[in-house]
Every structure is written in structure tokens, then in C-alpha cells.
Amino acid sequence: MTIREMAQELGCELVQGVFEDIELTGGYTSDLLSDVMAHARAGEALITIQAHKNTVAVASLANLPVIVACNSRPIPPDMIEAAQDEGIAILRTKETQYQVSGRLFALFAASADRAI
Amino acid sequence: MPLLSDFHNHSCLSPCGSLEMSPRLLASTAAARGVRLLALTDHNSSLNCPAFDSACKAAGIIPLFGMEACTLEEVHVLCLFGHLDAAMAFSEAWNRLLPVIPNVPAKMGDQVYVDEEDTIIGEVEYYLGVGADLGLDGIGTYVHGFGGLVIPAHVDRAAFSMTSQLGFIMKGPWAALECVRIPPATDTLGYPLTTSSDAHHPEHIARRPFLLETESDELLPNGPDSASGIDMKALAAALKRRPRG
Fold first, then answer.
1. Would you state the pLDDT for residue B226?
2. Cα atoms found within 13 Å of the Cα of residue A36, Cβ hemisphere only
């Protein structure tokens, strides 16, 4: 499933569309950026409510190609600008992190073989 | 005369700080803009404070040392010390509480520390923009143990603040609360309020200082050249005189 396919499946608004539409490997849900840095894996979608520029920096460091901002969080212009520079997609949804994670987990079920 | 003060500034050690922000540039620019009591508060580290000490002496202003610590909740908190040695001891201890995540300078920014002539003398190889393994309920006591005082940073901002991470202002042993704007839009529970520049680039230096009702001899009872540093009780007392929300 690519980023654009995921956006379509989730019915998300595409807030930042300058990115390479690569294949996703899964998702990581967290609102603590230190936790994202420590545990997210390259190629995963980041599901969060932390909608600010630092989230882009962390996604860049961890090689996460897309940020899904939940609860209709406003996306500040400097976040969009930073994401454009880094080629990281930003999607926005009115759904919660729980709802998005559940739906993504089902979509990724076939490949959801992360070790615990 | 009240002291024009600015307690929240970054240098080239902070990954998000400009590489040209040497402690010397910070101190000389702030002094030229009228600041007389200035703190250096890089993210989770005080390694540029020795150079900052020399720079403030050269610029004729009073230094405060410390860091902008990031707690377990990813709330930013200013930890301030009147003496360089106390700040350095705290910094060393605090760094043992940080998760070790390698920094990637090309993506996250440089983390270099310099000597008093702006020559780079070292680089922190783990990322400083992380949350430590200590929460808001413990940081006050921890910092007090090193003789410092604690001011939660930009409590009215939408990232890395009590408001963004908790949704409310938590009670604690705070000497004051730092706001981007006074009056803040959030309930600050009657704590004294400060503003601060949170300078990351030269153009931010001294953009939001505040007035502290005190005199330099009150803060430095043994004189400006004394090795004993700022009297932190006098500083805490002066902060109590700041406006409250």
C-alpha cells in the first residue's frame, strides 16, 4: 500500500502533497516524539496528534515518509514547509489515533508480522 | 533600576540553533540590546556554558547557566543555576537520563560546543532533542538538589509545553512560568510570569526580555567578580515580584 492509497483508504485530507509515493511497511502510533525516534521503523506511517514542525524533523530522522495528524489538528504553515523540504507527506483526519491505527492495522494485516 | 533579563536562549549546541549562534555572539548582541541578566539554555546540555561565562564577563553582563531540559512528558523546562560549576554538574547528571539516539547533523542540525573564541572544541553525537527519563513530578527536586531553580518554558505554546503535553498547568516548585505572551491564554494558577526570547538565531536575541525588580548587588552580594555566582535565593525572591496571571 502506497501513501496515496492509504490516504484514499482512510479518507484523509492531503495537506502536504510533495512526496514520493512509496510503499509503506506499516504504521507507528505515538504522541511522544522521543518514543517515535526510539521505536518507529523506516517506511512506517506516523499516526499522531503532534502537529508541529518538530514532528517533521523526527519523521525525517526515523525515515517515516508520512505523518497522519489525527483529531483534525490544525497544521501550522512552518510544518507544511518543513515537510515539503523533506518530501514527507502530511495527511489529516478527524478520526482519533485509535481509529486510524485500527483501520491501518487491518489494511496491513497480511504483512503485520512485527516482532513483539 | 530593574534588570532587563532574558532566561531562555540557545546556541550552536542546540540542534535547532543556528551555527553562528556562538555564546559570544549571544552575549555581545544581548548586551548591545540592553539585556543585563542573560541565561544560556541549550536543549538538554550546558556544554557551551563555560564559553558563555567568559563571553558575559567580556560583555559586562550577569550570566545565568543551565539548560532547557526536556522531561519524560516532553515538556520543556528551564533549569537555571547561578554558578557555572553547578550547571555543569547538573548537565552531566541530566545527560545520563537521556535516551541515546545518534544525531544526524544533516537532518537534525549540528550540536557543537565552542571555546571563548568561537572555535569548535567538540560535538555531541547523541541527539539532544529527546525527553529524559524523569518526569515533571521529579524535576523540581532534582534541580534544587544542584542548587538551581526551575521555570517551565513557553507554557502557552502548542508544542513541548505543559499545555501541549498535559493540557493544563501542573502545580510544582516552579520559580515562575515562562509565557510567549503576557497575559497568556491559559490559566497559570497565580505563578509569577516571565517572557523570554527563546532565541535560536541572531535576529531573535532580546526579542522578548522581561524586567526583574532587583539590583545587581542584590543578586551578586559578593560583587560582580566574585567566584560565588548569583545568589539563587535573591533571584527566586525577585521572580516572586513578577506579575501573575
1. 74
2. 29
Average pLDDT for chain B: 96
Domain that holds residue A30: 3-110
**Contacts of residue A33 in chain B, CB cutoff 8 Å?**
74, 129-131
**Cell numbers found for residue A26:** 506499516
pTM (predicted TM-score): 0.90
Q: Which of B8, B79, B116, B63 is nearest to B224 (CA)?
A: B63
Half-sphere exposure of B77 (CA within 13 A, CB side): 32
Query: How far apart, in whole angstroms, are the C-alpha atoms of residue A5 and residue A21?
Result: 9
Q: Is A9 domain-assigned?
A: yes
Least confident of A54-68, A98-112, B45-59: A98-112
Indicate whether A43 belongs to any domain. yes
A33 touches chain B (CB under 8 A): yes
Q: Is B131 within the bounds of a domain?
A: yes
Q: What CATH code is carried by the domain that includes residue A64?
A: 3.40.1390.20
The runs of H, that is alpha helices, within chain B are 23-32, 49-59, 84-95, 105-108, 136-145, 162-165, 216-219, 232-240
Q: What is the CATH number of the domain that holds B68?
A: 3.20.20.140
Q: How far apart are CA A97 and CA A72, in angstroms?
A: 11
DSSP letter assigned to residue B223: -
**How far is B241 from B167, CA to CA, in rounded Å?**
27
Hey, are the CB atoms on A61 and B99 less than 8 Å from each other?
A: no
